[in-house]
Amino acid sequence: MEIAEPKPAWWKEMSVYQIWPRSFADGNNDGVGDLQGVLGKLDYIKALGVDAIWFSPLYPSPNADYGYDIADYRNISPDYGDLALFQEVLDAAHARGIKVFMDLVVNHTSDQHPWFQAAKESTDSPYHDYYIWRGGRGAAPARPQGKRPPNNWLSVFEGKAWEYVSQVKEYYLHVFAKGQPDLNMANPKVREEVKEIMRFWLDMGVDGFREDVITYIAKREGLPNGFPLPIATGFEHYTNLPKVKDYLREFQQDVLSGYGAFTVGEAPMMTPKVAKEYITEAAGNLLNMMFHFQHMEADCLMTDWIGLPFRLKKLKRVWTSWQKEMYGVGWNALYLENHDHPRIINRYGSLKYRVESGKMLAAAYLLQSGTPFVYQGQEIGMTNITQPSLSAFKDVVTFNNAKLAKKLGLSDARFLKIANRRSRENARTPMQWSAEPNAGFSEAEPWFAVNPNYAEINVAAAQADPNSLLHWYRALLQFRREHPVVVYGRYEEHYKSSRSLYCYTSEYRGQRLLVVCSFKEEPVRFQAPAGFELVNAALVFCNYAKPVEAGCSFITRPYECRVYLM
Ligand code: GLC
C-alpha cells in the first residue's frame, strides 16, 4: 500500500522550548523565577533555534501543585509579574519570531478558585454544579465523616479521590491533589467558561495551548467503582472516555479553529491506536498532537516511582510504533524531558559520559519525524540533584509517596534514596545560567535548592565551549530546520533486537538519514544496514572527533552517536 507523505504544516516544522517559570530565571531577585527573567532570556532561547515557547502555568495559584492548581484563569501570578508584563513578553517573543503557548489546565481548578469557593458554600450555588459532588455511601450521619466516600477511586496525588465538605454534606472529586477539585465538564456552563478562557488568551495574541491531562476531562456516568486489582484507582472511568472527543470537538469548532491555534494534549496511558481517534484528519484533528507517556518507563505520573529498570528494547519499541503508526496520518510530539520526570542523563544516559550520552539522547529523539520539545536545562545537560534529607523536597507527589513508603515499612533513608532518583523535583531545580552564586538564577536565595554541580554545568560555560551540549542542540535544531528529511522523513528501525544500539533511517524525496546511537559504555560493533554505504555518505553529526570512515562498520565509543546524510 502506498503510504502518503505527511502534509506540511508550520506546527510540524517548529520546535518548542518548555519553561517551568518558577525555576527559569529570576528577574526581580526574590528567589522565584518570573517573566522579567524570561524577558532577559529571550535572545538565549532564540539562539537555541526553537520556534515557540510553552509556558507551564503562569496563573495565580496557591501552589498545591506548583501552578497546576489555578485560582484565576485570566491573570498572571504576582510571583511572575502581571498581565502587562506578560503582554510585553508575548510581544517580545513574537518580535523574534517565537510563538507562545499557554498551559491550559481545565481538568481541575484550585480549591481557592472563586468558583469552588462558591460551590462548597451551598448546593444552591450556581457554581456547585461546576464540580463533581456526591453524597457518601451508606447512611452518612451514622458513619464518621470521610470514612465512606462515594466510590473506591484513589487520587493520583493524595489518598482517596474524594474530600468531604460538611457545609454541603457532600464529597467532591479530586483526581489529583485535594486542592485540585475536578471540573464537571458535562455541565455546558463549564465548557462555555473553558472557551472564554481560551478566547481571552488567544485574543491577547497567544498562539495555542498545551492541554493538561486533557484525556481525563470526562468521567464515566454514575461514577462506578474502579477495578479492584491491584488497587482500585478508578482511572478506567476517567481516561479517554468517548465524551472527551465531543468536548474537544466543541472547543475546536467554537474557538480554536477560528484562531488557527495550536494544541498539544497531555495524554497518560495513550497508545498509538487510541491517539488516532484524536489526532488524525479522519478523527477531525481534535488536537494537533499528544504527549504520550509510553517511552518514559511509565504510563502515567503514578507509575514513575515504581522505578522499573531502563530497557532500551522497550524504548525502541515504543518509539518505532509511534513513528510507524503516525506516519502520514497523525503527528508525533517528541520529548524526553519535562517538569514531571527526572533528568534523562540519569535515566537513560550516564553521568560519567554526561556530555556524550546527552548528545546521543538528543540525536536519538530530535531527528525522528515529529515536533520536538526541549525542556529548560536539558540543552545544557542538567542532571538530577541529590537532596540531603526529606525536608528538602517540596512536591505533593513526593509527600504522598513518603506516606505510602512509611505504610509499606520503608525507612526514611531508603525512601530518600528512591526520591532522589525518581522524583520529578529533579527537573525543577533552578536553571543553571553561570558559575556565579545561585547559578546566576537569582541574587536572592532561590526558592528551591540549586544543584551544586552548577559550577561546572551552566549556560555560560556551555556557550564558551564549542563542544558543549548546548552547541550540539543548536546544531541539531538548525539541521532539522534545513532538512525536511528530518521533519517529514519516513522512518525505519534497524537491529530491533539489539540491547545496545538504537539505529534508524529516514527517507524523504531522495534524501536519506541514518542515525546510530549506542546506549552503552562498552564497545559495540555496528554494521551499516544494506544499501547504506558509510564511505559515500556525509557524516553530519558525531559526538566524538569525526573519524576517518573505513568501510561499512565501526566499533562504538562510549555512548557514541553518528548521523549520516545520503
Ligand atoms: C499534568 C502536569 C503535572 C500536574 C498534573 C496535574 O500531568 O504536567 O505537572 O501535576 O497534570 O495537574
Task: Tell me what the structure shows.
The protein is an alpha/beta fold and 566 residues long. The protein has 4 domains: 348 residues, TIM Barrel; 77 residues, Oligo-1,6-glucosidase, Domain 2 (Oligo-1,6-glucosidase, domain 2), CATH 3.90.400; 34 residues, no CATH class; 77 residues, Sandwich (Immunoglobulin-like). The protein is 28% helix and 14% strand. It has 15 helices and 18 strands. The strands form 4 sheets. The protein has an 8-stranded parallel sheet with strand order 9-8-7-3-2-1-11-10. A 5-stranded antiparallel sheet has the order 12-13-14-18-16. The chain has a 3-stranded antiparallel sheet with strand order 4-6-5, with no helix packed on it. Helix 10 runs parallel beside helix 14. The longest helix is centred in the middle third of the chain and has 18 residues. Bound molecules: alpha-D-glucopyranose. Alpha-D-glucopyranose binds next to loops.
Condensed summary:
This protein has helices spanning 10-13, 35-48, 83-95, 114-119, 188-204, 242-259, 272-279, 312-326, 344-348, 354-366, 396-407, 412-422, 459-464, 469-482, 484-488; strands at 16-19, 52-55, 99-104, 133-134, 162-165, 170-173, 208-211, 262-266, 289-291, 333-334, 371-375, 490-494, 501-508, 511-518, 525-527, 538-542, 553-555, 561-565.
The portion of residues assigned to helices is 25-40%
Detail the poorly predicted runs.
none
Structure summary, number of beta strands:
18
The tally of helices reads 15
Within CATH, the superfamily of the largest domain carries the name: Glycosidases
The total tally of domains equals: 4
Strands of the widest sheet, in order across it, are 9-8-7-3-2-1-11-10
Terminal Cα separation, in Å? Answer: 25 Å
Enter the CATH topology name of the largest domain: TIM Barrel
Q: What is the quaternary state of this protein?
A: single chain
Structural class: alpha/beta
Mean pLDDT: 95
List the bound ligands. Answer: alpha-D-glucopyranose
Biggest β-sheet description:
8 strands, parallel
Computed over alpha carbons, the radius of gyration is 24 Å
β content, as a range? 5-15%
Q: Under the CATH scheme, which architecture of the largest domain would be assigned?
A: Alpha-Beta Barrel
Shape: globular
Give the C-level CATH assignment of the largest domain. Answer: Alpha Beta
